[in-house]
């Protein structure tokens, strides 16, 4: 029997640490198993070497914050993605590696700020993607509603979902406020980012778990 495709889950924090990380690790482990993937969770930056990453299909950054990789690790992740490896960023993955330009390109936009967590309504704009196909066009959800330093549309991403700022307090991006998007570059692997996932309870929610499962499947699908 051939070995299972492998996924590396990175949860290192060098700033704020979300208390939902353990729940996220367990949820992703379960989702990976159900999808026939082998998931390895780590906070060791030395896991990011070209030799080690060569054994993985995709890398996931779950609620990472700050500078979580060494210079060698940055080079290894860039090489991994450039040669077909998939990347999935979840929640504060957008608040990571601000001093590394390539990471900003990989992600599509960087975290700016957020108001207090509160209920709002997610507008699902693309119901053909496996991460959003199961969701209603208007999805009531409670989260930290991230504002970004730039609109990811400017980077040419495929926006899958946005939030209606008129339905909550404190949004700063205006009428076009993307939350979830993906990229499929001509060269290299796929990348996907979802800003959702602040609360512990999110990782037990059926719709959110299916959202993550679809994203994970998608980034692994064409990675080499």
UniProtKB/TrEMBL annotation:
Pfam families in the cross-refs: ThuA
Gene3D superfamilies: 3.40.50.880
ThuA-like domain residues: 6-219
Protein name: ThuA domain-containing protein
Organism listed in the record: Streptacidiphilus alkalitolerans
